[in-house]
Amino acid sequence: MPLKINKNDVSGVVSMPPTPCRDGAGGWNATDSIDYDKVPKMLDLLLESGAKTFAFCGTTGENAALLWEEKRSYIAAAAKHINHRVPIFAGSTNLGTKDVIRQVRAFKDVGVEGVFLGLPLWQTPTLENSIQYYADISEAVPDMAIMVYSNSSFFKSNFPVEFWEGMAKKAPTVICNKITYGIDHIVDDLRVAGDKINFIPGGVGIVEADKKAPGRFTALWSTGYALEPFTALVNALHKRDMAKVEEVEKDIKSVSPLTPPGGFGGDPTLKGWAKAGSSGFAHYNAQIHKHEWHITGQLGYLDLGPMRAPYTDLPDDYKKFAEAHTRGWMEMRKKYIGVKAG
User: Which CATH number fits domain 7-256: 3.40.1050.10, 3.30.70.270, 3.40.30.10, 3.20.20.70?
Assistant: First the structure.
């Protein structure tokens, strides 16, 4: 059977939100923590602000903190509410190939278009292992599209050019990639992938990526809320209105930083995935984004509930910066309310 979507169907803003959690259900003993009342509210807010694709249950989506039964029922609820209005990729990253295939097949049964998939999370795979992993999943479930989750710090890989060459040759269901490894070799990645994979930069990173390969990037990803500024940014890029791109980029960058100084940078004596993994953000990713949504709730938007064990620690300085960033974003966003996805 053919794929339900292709790479051209992933365009605009790709939303990767936290998973709503019931009050008091963030602990290890909660067997059904999903706040099903907030799921449609969250989805409608994100759709209204421009989301054109969803990728659930990555790092921000708290994949590692959910029971399989919780994740499956959450994805099913989201799929029912979205009802194919935009594509859904369900987070399926796990320890090994066989369990991932089990999850992919289950998500196919609930009606989503694809899966959001990182490398196996135990023994660090070799380049050959990494390519074959995606090739095996393509073979096992040939009618489910794959979005590669190429996070260098979590999956201990710099996702070299050879990896993308292997994806294009051996994993035909890989149609897109959430870039989370930098863009140092993006031009070569695009070259070896040809017309088979849509590479998706994060946030304003799409502007720098576009400078390296003008016109090649049709989508950006965001883990945030109130997506209108990002919708305006990607709309302007689609139209090649570079003056508008510069204006929106400047507005977005005017918001105070999300983390304390050095929160994203990591240890400068390290390189590649080791450097990325040493950053504070690598330790507090899920917690920061849950805290941001908590602040939006105070501002009349939507609180997605508590953090989930084991990822519940967030230092006070991170909370302070996240709150200032959130308030700044919600104020800056007012300029773009009403912007519709192109």
Answer: 3.20.20.70
